[in-house]
């Protein structure tokens, strides 16, 4: 296996993961969607569009040519969830069968309601699938601040290879085997982070914030278990860990989107002002369709889906949540 890592997607997270790999002694080929981003990384060793102000290791080689990843021993895929299918299709001809491919994006495909591992199975069926997820802001990882994540792979030796390529003292992947749990944790926490931002923006208080995390965690776990995940996965880094991080810091794009919604800004204005992805906006309606299909009650996610789809105002959604009948905590 080549010791070079291929990374698809040079946004903030793909770039930070390239930096984590360099810290682990692994050179990488980082594919950027925008040719000018690839050129800037090679010329200045910085990603001025998506990860400004962080000096990158010269072992990171950027490209805009998908064929350059054919020689890599493993791939990380880090494109936004709604572009995952088209991106993977563009790389189909360049994958060597048996290559470990770790999905690092957090979201559910709209329309099909597929998880990223389903999309990978349909587009690159000869890959060995893995999921990397957990509490990890790109800027923290790129700077080398201590971070721990879940690396889920049912092929333990492929999982260990991936961990050896990216793990270091400061970036610590923990091996797991539950891809569905890791994916639902990462996808649903983005939706809940929008709700947490709304709570903050509307100044509903720390008690409401804590209640939201606990009841949101119950929703996340119910959906994951209904889809076949192990309950314990959700108590780990990729579930509760990421939920706590993302609901607690405006450094999260999802939480900051909720904050602005809570303060009265329109979603259109919030989205127009950013070039980075806010996965929870597209994932919220997909989560609700998936929950309905599996008869899972997810009232907080439903409120977020109604707000981002323009079906309810922030105040109407909050009032509807607070008017729900009292129920058992374990329901
Ligand atoms: N930024 C972070 O701290 C973390 C992000 N993630 C996940 O990583 C994924 C990527 O997020 P970021 O790197 O933050 O992105 P970003 O917000 O920094 O950049 C946007 C990305 O979208 C790409 N893009 C835009 N249009 C595209 C198209 N038509 N086809 C393919 N790619 C296109 C851009 O090239 C760029 O890579 C998301 O699913 C996110 O949830 C996961 C953990 C941490
Ligand atoms: O997934 C993340 C941290 O684990 C990043 O969250 P945001 O996409 O909300 O910024």
- Secondary-structure-based class equals alpha/beta
What does the radius of gyration come to?
Answer: 19 Å
As a percent range, the share of helical residues equals: 40-55%
The kinds of small molecule bound in this structure are: 1,4-dihydronicotinamide adenine dinucleotide, 1,3-dihydroxyacetonephosphate
**Averaging pLDDT over every residue, what do you get?**
97
Query: Count the helices. How many?
Result: 15
**Number of structurally distinct domains:** 2
CATH architecture of the largest domain: 3-Layer(aba) Sandwich
- Quick one: biggest sheet? 8 strands, mixed
Q: For the largest sheet, list the strands in their spatial order.
A: 3-2-1-4-5-6-7-8
Fold-level CATH name of the largest domain: Rossmann fold
Number of strands: 8
At the fourth CATH level, what is the homologous superfamily of the largest domain?
NAD(P)-binding Rossmann-like Domain
- Mass-distribution shape: globular
CATH class type of the largest domain: Alpha Beta
Q: What fraction strand?
A: 5-15%
Q: Ranges with pLDDT <50 over ≥5 residues?
A: none
